[in-house]
Every structure is written in C-alpha cells, then in structure tokens.
Amino acid sequence: MTLGWTSPLRTARLALHSSSRPNAGSLRAFSLFPDITPARPTPPHLEQPPTGPIPYDAVPNPLTLSKVSAQLSKTVAPLPKYHFHGIFSRNNTKVYLCGPDGKLVPQGWWSGGSCGFKGANRKSHEAGYQCAVHAFRRLEEVIKDKGRVSLALHFAGFGKGRFAVEGVFLTSEGDRIRPLVVEVEDRTRIKIGGTRSKKKRRV
Predict the structure, then answer these.
(1) SS (H, E, C) 65-98
(2) pLDDT of 71-95, one tens digit each?
(3) What is the SS3 assignment for 148-164?
(4) Nearest 5°: phi and psi at 179?
(5) 10 Å Cβ neighbour count for 65?
(6) Pairing relation of β-strands 104-111 and 93-98?
(7) Is the N or the C terminus of the chain less surrounded, counting Cβ atoms within 10 Å?
(8) 147/138 Cα distance (integer angstroms)
(9) What is the side-by-side strand order in the sheet with 181-186?
(10) Which of 96, 95, 65, 102 lies closest to 80 in space, CA to CA?
C-alpha cells in the first residue's frame, strides 16, 4: 500500500537536483510554508536623488562653540590660578599656597608643627584639618585683595592628614573655596623597579 504523501526532505532534494541555481520553486520547497514565497527586500524610495556630498556647514556641529560663547571667551580674561599644595607623609602634614607664578604666597605655608602639634600628632587627622582651615583663611584674604581667583589642588602622599584636608573641602568651612577648584592632581611618587629601597623606619 502506497501513500500519496511525500516528505518535505525528499521534495527539497528533488528541487536541489533539478536545477543547480535555486529559483522561486526551490526556495518554496526549502521553506517551512511551501505556499508562501519569500519576499525580496525593496530599496527605500527616495523623493530626490542625492546631489553629492553634504557641505560642511549644512549640519551644525554640537561640539563647536557658538558665536556668543566664542565672543565671551575672547572678551573675558581667564582667572588667575592659585595652587594649593599638600604633602602628607607618615610623620608630618604640610600645606603650601602658591600664586599663579609658582611663588609662595606671603605667610602661605603651614605644617603640623606650626599649628601647635608635637611629635607623632603632627601627622594626625586634626593636624591636617587645622592646616587646611588656616590655608582657607589666607586664601579668602587674597580674594579680598585681588578679586576672584581659581584654585588648583596638588596632593602628594597618603598620610592621615590627606583625608582630613579632602574632608574640609566638603564641610561648611569649604563652601567658599570649593567653587574655585578647577584642577585636582595627585603627585604621589610611585616607585617602579630601581635600586634597593631604604630600610623602613620602625618606631
């Protein structure tokens, strides 16, 4: 007894051997739904053919300055940049305030010892806090004398005083100084290779 039904696999093999180049019939045989012919993608309709490359000024560049911003940048002079140096070692905390020329501001340096801390307390959290507060007061005096300035921070070392100085900028005592900061730099030296290190100091 023979049935009139043929398997789709046999139909696909017959279509493949009948022609070396697949046509619509072979594609219909390969598909799971033989009654549906796969539609070919049609290119999108263009109302007007392209006339050539797009000119540079046709599309505004969002990264370029506007005319108003460009005029303001030319007319407004940049603020003088003062430098706040913090050196935080294992034994002491030092803070320096320098002008735009790199020279030290008069009465512009503080350390744990100058703030009244002796011995091992010079590296403590409170010593760094007091150094930063004194530096902020001196910077406010400079602003009163010479007008608005900008401030660049330069830190070196990872002593306990560093976390204190960074915390002062986030407190109420640093509200007037925080908006002036335009640059933050870490100048901690990292040794890679080289000669043998000095013996560690053990107290």
Answers:
(1) CCHHHHHHHHHCCCCCEEEEEEEECCCCEEEEEE
(2) 655 666 788 899 999 999 888 999 9
(3) CCEEEEEEECCCHHHHH
(4) -65, -15
(5) 11
(6) antiparallel
(7) N
(8) 13
(9) 104-111, 93-98, 81-88, 150-156, 181-186
(10) 102
